[in-house]
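[retry 2/3] Flagellar P-ring protein: previous attempt timed out, resubmitting with same input.
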Amino acid sequence: MSVMKFTELRKSSFSSVLSLLLIAQLWLGSSPAQADRLKDIANLQGVQSNQLVGVGLVTGLDGTGDQTTQAPFTAESFRAYLDQFGIPMPAGQTFQLRNVAVVSVQAELPAFTKPGQTIDVTVSSLANASSLRGGSLERTFLMGVDGEVYAMAQGNLIVGGLGVEGADGSRISINVPSVGRIPGGATTVKEVETAFNMGDHITFNLKRADFTTARRVSKAINDFMGEGTAAAIDAVSVRVRAPVDSQSRVAYVSELENIEVEQGSAPARVIVNSRTGTIVIGENVRVSPAAVTHGSLSVTISEGFGVSQPAPFSDGETAVLPQTDITVAQENNRMFLFDTGATLSDIVQAINAVGAAPGDLSAILEALKQSGSLRADLIVI
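[retry 2/3] Flagellar P-ring protein: success.
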């Protein structure tokens, strides 16, 4: 494919993307603001999940466990495990345990989980086990950040990955066979206390800090429950008076979390993903007067060979000589102008007119930011 055809194709593809962005912006601009339930935009302070972790053994592997010569702590863990059942192992003895692997066991304990309820666990290899497929997790204690045991895990693993290795060192791996899950594999033995029933107030924390949203949440609660019920503490927290009785408080929170609130508009931001070339321009992005020009310089170098043939009956020899062809092409794109308060649709239309590729668009936005014309935060992720 020639350079010209490739450039035209690239322009056509990206023009389609920019057109879709423009259509989406026009649709969003014409749609009414949407209200969200309080439960979708805020969390109740003191009511959150807790992370549990433990270290255990997976047994029953088909020769895909840890190599104890490279991971000696696997043998020590296995020795300690047998000691719990009164099976001593001779000191100093070395042995290979290709069907055993030391693993990390992780779980998330939701708030209000009671003893006897089960939760899912994730099991991942800590050493050099090639696969946990077909293994079974031995009883493992799961501890919280305070060092207390809150659950016990045990059961057969479900491994979505697959790994096959040949005698010559060749290997085929599908997904990650060294990580597995056990649905309902841990049983809770201790409840985590929450601050839900403490004091005469509850606090809602917004998932996205915004003074406007916090004020609107406070106003919506006061309109529903009565003036003076709620007060915005800062850009995140809204404090609400609540009944002291636990049953009444549950019903009270149930009413509050279904109140609909219109969130404040997000800050003006342009997000650029430097790895994928994805660019997202927020609806509040504006551009002050600026003139932009953009041109692309294409250099094509092709290598070939030519044959030098001497004249008949001469003493010369036929020789093969390298030949290099260099072609330089530069696009003469026109300058475009951003007027005062240009919106997202104006930006998309202008950049679409010059057919800039994602990498070129990033350069244009960065230049606008450096010149002070881009009225938004430019964030590169």
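[retry 2/3] Flagellar P-ring protein: The longest strand covers residues 297-308.
[retry 2/3] clearing retry counter.
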